[in-house]
Amino acid sequence: MAEENTPQKDLSQLSFEDALRALESIVRRLESGDVPLDESISLYAQGEELRKRCTERLQAAEARISKLTVDAGGAVTGAQPFGAD
To answer: pLDDT 10s per residue in the chain (85 long)?
Structure first.
């Protein structure tokens, strides 16, 4: 599991799953209400960076997924980018 205080330089190396786990850990800590204000602000900033990393990874995955197009007989006739209708 990724450390809660992942240095920013290591964010680009995190897998989606590790970034999401770290983000969930930060959310739990913030929701507990037991974190001092200054630490809450720092955690929020870390969480925002992790959210961006997760979004980037999801967008990269979407870009790699293709939607197959088929003709009336069910034969594959081509592919188009995910979300292009």
So the answer is: 444 444 555 888 889 999 999 999 999 999 999 999 999 999 999 999 999 999 999 988 877 776 667 777 877 777 776 666 6
The two tokens of residue 43 are 């955690």
Which residue from 19, 67, 64 is spatially nearest to 46, judged by alpha carbons? 19
Q: Please provide the distance, in angstroms rounded to a whole number, between the alpha carbons at the two ends of the chain.
A: 38
CATH topology of domain 8-81: Helix Hairpins (1.10.287)
The domains of the chain are located at: 8-81
